[in-house]
Structure formats: structure tokens, C-alpha cells
Amino acid sequence: MAVSREGARLARALRQRLSAQQSAPLCARGFASTRPAHNATVKDDGIADIESTSAFTAPQPDQNIVKAFEEARSRDHKERRLPGNRYQYHPPKYNRGPLHPIQAPPSSDPTARDFVPGPFSFPRLKHTYDSTIAPDLMTLTYKHIPPGTTPPESQKGLLRQWDGSSPYHKNRPSRGPRGGGSSRLGIIERDITWNNIPEIEAVTINSYAPLAADNKEYLHVARAVVQAISGQFPEVTTVKHNVIHWGVRKGSKAGAKTTLRGGAAYDFVDKLVTLVLPKIKDWPGIKATSGDSAGNIAFGMQPAWMAYFPEIEFNYDMYPPKLMPGCDIFIHTSATSDRQGRLLMEALGFPFYGKVTH
Questions:
Q1: 5, HSE (Cβ side, Cα atoms, 13 Å)
Q2: Could you tell me where the Basic and acidic residues compositional bias lies (predicted)?
Q3: How far apart (Å, rounded) are the C-alpha atoms in residues 338 and 288?
Q4: Is the dihedral of CA 126, 129, 131, 134 positive or negative?
Q5: Which residues pair with 301 in a beta bridge?
Q6: Which of 32, 181, 190, 344 gets the most CB atoms within 10 Å of its CB?
Q7: Domain boundaries, the chain
Q8: How many whole angstroms separate alpha carbon 350 and alpha carbon 331?
Q9: d(Cα 13, Cα 23) in Å, to the nearest integer?
């Protein structure tokens, strides 16, 4: 402060000395020629526009203004807390929309109902996918399109357009083809781009034990096997239709299934490719025609192959060999066709055999 005051004092002294010594104006001669004749002899102080004080000597803002600003800022950043009368220990169970006064906490909050702790580790296969597989897939499937190229209408004639006879036809999507069932269009394959690289979304493990309707021990073993190889508590599946020839009744419990997502799915696929499948000597691979035309591929495991899982191999005596079930493994991917799904699976290490028909 003392330095700033001294600087202001020296500026005032210099201004007075310059005004006393100079007899001509400090501004340009061209501007002086435009002035009236009676103001030609008036001295023009060029430093008159300079403020006598600097920002350091400016007075501090009013404390009431500072307090009001801090209160408004804290009011904007204040978290929306749930009322303590009804949601003291549990957040709302149902989401009633973004305009409802009571909102559930985000999934990252430990008090949320959908909170999942973790992740505690990064899957090795996921790291390999991000660093190697994804760039390779994008490079191998790259299609150069010169600027200004008009894309061909590959779906021309398959989808019917609205005739515009009604105002409700505006901005509506194209109509489906005539007929129903298998004649309906499936998912349309999209080109692989930097933001559309196929990856694993989920893995479903299903174990079917048809003899569990008469002997519950088959169901217990199936649940134990699925829980051991997946690390999740499975849910019991029931039969939806009667099959008289097989002795299957509707509503009977006949298996267990579970779905892995995120890091657990990548860990399970890594375990399959690295430890389980290489031990099967007579396993030819996945059939090339496997798939649901939407990028999802499934294959089965025989009961004799279940012993190759490390969770079952080290404690195989706990599972009765005659009650050991097989399982079906469904790998859900973000691919939009079986071709892209096979490309991803081959990059992950799954072999395929047979002739590819599509």
C-alpha cells in the first residue's frame, strides 16, 4: 500500500512539473488545428485522463455484497438432500421423472439402490482390447470414402415411405416391408468407425438340467456349478412349455442362469480363451454359422468339459460326476452383424470352423 501511495504522489508531482514547463499541447497538431481559435491558447493537459489512483488503492467492496454473493453461491452448490421423514435410511424405490421434487441419488452414491462397489481391478483382456484389438479392428475394416461421395442407397425398395396424405406422416420413420415374421427386416449392419467398434457387452451362462423336475439334486449341482464359474449367485429358470415326449412339465425348475457385465464379462472370456478351451483336445471351435444376425454368438460346453474350469478343477470331488451339467454360453456384443461378431471373437482368441454362409 505504501509503495502504491508513493507512486501516486510521484505521478502527481510529475504532472504538475510537465504542465508548468510545456507551453504547447501534448496532443497531435492535426487535432489542435480543428479546435476553435479562442481555444488555441488554452493549455491541454494530456495526463488529465489518467486516474489518480490505481487498483491497489481502490476501496474494498461492501461486506454486505460479499456476504450476499457467498450465500447465493452456496445456495446454488448445495446438494439436494432427501427428506428425513420417509427416506431417512432408504432412497426412493421408483423414479418418478426428472421433474419430481424427490430425486434418487446417483448410482455412484453408496446410499443408492443401484450402487455397485468397485471396480477393484482392470481386466487384462479389456486392457488388450483397448490397446491392441480395437485399433486393429478399426484399421482392418477401414473404408476410405473421398469427400463429396454420395453413399449408395443400399436399402432402397426394402422400406416403404409414407405417402403424406395425413399430417401425422411428417417426420415419421419409414414403414416396414409387407408381411410379418421372418420377412421383417433385421438389424442393419453399420460400418465399423472410431465410435462404433464392436466390444463385449455381456456374457450369459445358462445351465439346463431337465432331470431336475424329478430329482432336485441336479438343480443344486447346476446352481453350484454356475455360481462357481461365474462368481455370481444365479437365478433358477423354469420351463415355459410342456414337452410330453421328454417328460417336461410347464413351471418346473430345470436350470440356472446368470449374466455377467463389465469387467466380470471380460474376466470370464479371458478365462475361457486362456485356461478352459485350450484344454479341450477334441474341441473344433465355434461353428461359423453360429449367431443371431445381430452380432451375438453362442456355443455349448459338454458336462465333461466343465472340469477344466479352475474353480471346479481344484475341488472336483465336491461335484458328483453323474450330476454334472453342461452349460450354454451366450456372448453379447455391440456388433451389428454376425460377420462383425465373428471378427471380434477371432481377435479375442476364439477359433471358428465350417463354411461361412453370410
A1: 2
A2: 72-82
A3: 9
A4: negative
A5: 327
A6: 344
A7: 2-65, 200-353
A8: 12
A9: 18
Residues in Cβ contact with 140 at an 8 Å cutoff, skipping those fewer than 6 apart = 343
- Hey, what's the torsion of the CAs at 335, 336, 338, 342, to 10 degrees? -20
Classify strands 286-287 and 235-238 as parallel, antiparallel or unpaired.
unpaired
In this structure, are residues 107 and 114 in contact, taking their beta carbons and an 8 Å threshold? Answer: yes
The C-alpha cell at 172 is 415419421
- What distance lies between CA 67 and its chain's CA centroid? 41
Residue type, position 132, single letter: T
Class of CATH domain 200-353: alpha beta
pLDDT in tens, the chain (358 residues): 565 667 667 777 767 665 555 544 444 444 444 555 555 454 555 566 666 666 667 778 888 988 888 888 777 655 566 666 777 778 888 889 989 888 888 888 888 998 988 888 899 999 999 999 999 999 999 988 898 888 776 554 567 788 889 999 999 988 776 665 544 556 678 889 889 999 999 999 999 888 877 788 899 999 999 999 999 999 999 888 887 777 778 888 888 999 999 999 999 999 999 999 999 988 889 999 998 888 999 999 999 999 999 999 988 888 988 899 999 999 999 999 999 999 999 999 999 998 886 6
Q: Which three cell numbers stand for residue 161?
A: 415411405
| Helix H or strand E segment including 229 | helix 216-230
Tell me the residue type at 10.
L
CA pair distance 121, 65, nearest whole angstrom: 50
Angstrom CA distances, 184 to 84, 94, 128, 176, 178, stand at 52, 36, 38, 7, 8
300 near 337, Cβ under 8 Å? no
Is 0.70 surpassed by the pTM of this model? Answer: no
